[in-house]
């Protein structure tokens, strides 16, 4: 059916999954940092966090990918001679894809994490401080576990969108499964067959992810419904 291109597309699927997971790790870090900035009592930090979230969420992902990849590569090669490096620097598409997707979805996750932290009653942190906990202990032992429970639904949505958006990275030359499917479609002139196969692989990936994250959400919600009542 796939005329010998099946293993090639599966190799691309593995690269797609690796790209999604690594990008999400970057996005989680930037999302937590952005949420901390936006909740900060320091005005310029809060303004910086709000600007990051607003600007990035207001520009299409494809535009940002092209801007960061090509614009970033041009900037690096303009700066390099200034520090004594004269060779041309070619940025790896995978590395560029990871940081671009992480940068984009970090903005979305900053809103998810901010809302999750705000959903935690202030009395929780005050109680921790009253028991003699330090600020770091209150954050990691009291706030973060509860934040995760509130953030999982929003995180799930962002993960599904990020996973599908990885297909856009193929435009900068990353040989993910979308790139491999396009190459196979061009060679065989059967685009429907290969794009349908890729659609099926994305559906499998997102469906498995959805089941895993729903299980995680149930685990974090154990014992909370009765307490909420």
Helix content: over 70%
Major sheet characteristics:
none
Rg over C-alpha atoms, rounded to the nearest angstrom: 21 Å
Shape: flat
Low-confidence stretches: none
Helix-strand category = mainly alpha
Number of strands: 0
CATH-derived topology of the domain at 15-174: MetI-like fold
CATH architecture of the domain at 15-174: Orthogonal Bundle
Q: Spell out the CATH superfamily of the domain at 15-174.
A: MetI-like
**Terminus-to-terminus distance:** 55 Å
CATH hierarchy, class of the domain at 15-174:
Mainly Alpha
* Total number of helices: 9
Q: What are the secondary-structure elements, in order, as H or E?
A: HHHHHHHHH
Roughly what fraction of the amino acids lie in strands? under 5%
Rounded average pLDDT: 87
Transmembrane segments: 12-39, 51-71, 91-109, 150-172, 192-216
Keywords: Amino-acid transport, Cell inner membrane, Cell membrane, Membrane, Transmembrane, Transmembrane helix, Transport
Domain ABC transmembrane type-1: 13-214
Family: Belongs to the binding-protein-dependent transport system permease family. HisMQ subfamily.
């Amino acid at each position: 059916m796939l005329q010998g291109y099946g293993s090639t597309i599966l190799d691309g699927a593995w690269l797609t999954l690796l790209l999604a997971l690594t990008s999400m790790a970057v996005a989680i870090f930037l999302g937590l940092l952005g949420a901390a900035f936006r909740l900060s009592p320091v005005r310029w930090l809060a303004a910086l966090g709000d600007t990051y979230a607003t600007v990035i969420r207001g520009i299409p992902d494809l535009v940002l990918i092209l801007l960061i990849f090509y614009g970033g590569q041009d900037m690096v090669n303009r700066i390099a001679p200034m520090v004594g490096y004269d060779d041309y620097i070619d940025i790896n598409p995978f590395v560029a894809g990871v940081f671009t997707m992480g940068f984009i979805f970090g903005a979305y996750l900053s809103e998810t994490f901010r809302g999750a932290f705000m959903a935690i009653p202030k009395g929780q942190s005050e109680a921790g401080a009253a028991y003699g906990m330090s600020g770091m202990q209150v954050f990691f032992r009291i706030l973060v576990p509860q934040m995760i429970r509130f953030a999982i639904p929003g995180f799930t949505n962002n993960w599904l969108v990020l996973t599908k958006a990885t297909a856009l990275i193929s435009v900068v030359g990353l040989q993910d499964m979308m790139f491999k499917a396009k190459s196979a479609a061009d060679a065989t002139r059967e685009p429907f067959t290969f794009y349908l196969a890729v659609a099926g692989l994305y559906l499998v990936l997102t469906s498995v992810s959805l089941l895993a994250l729903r299980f995680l959400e149930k685990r974090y919600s154990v014992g909370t419904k009765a307490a909420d009542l």
